[in-house]
Specification:
The structure is a single chain. This protein is α/β, with parallel strands linked by helices. The chain has a single domain, classed as Rossmann fold, CATH 3.40.50. The chain contains eight helices and five strands; from the N terminus they run βααβααβααβαβα. It has a five-stranded parallel beta sheet, with helices on both faces. The longest helix is centred in the middle third of the chain and has 14 residues.
Length: about 140
Amino acid sequence: MAYKIYFDVNALLDLTLLRNNHNDIEIVIKEVEKGTLRGFVCGATIHTISYFLIKKYNIDKTKQILLNLLSFISIVDLPKEDIQKALFMNLKDIEDAIQVQTALTYKMDYFLTSDKQLIKASSETMPILNASSFLKRISAN
């Protein structure tokens, strides 16, 4: 069975804006496209990355990028009670807490991000890794 991967806003921004870490996340995304991994985000992630994409690209290019992502990445969102749980997490960034709670609620196997502070919150319950570490981990299995 394919691993369920939750993609953080930063990971998708690395990919779509071609930031420093985009090569490794691109490899992971290609595996999602092939179906060997299953990719997930919350609706707010699409909203957030669209804000940054439109600053770099025009509206048509932004829509094309988002539609491409949505062709192989699934959207999962939290009910109110789980958002409230996220607000009690020991994370300083509310957006991160909501994303981590989403990954926990939907029983993701891994949470991918390039946010170094968020990676420090990794646990056995929710492994939070950058794309490079994730690729090393799954290639060892």
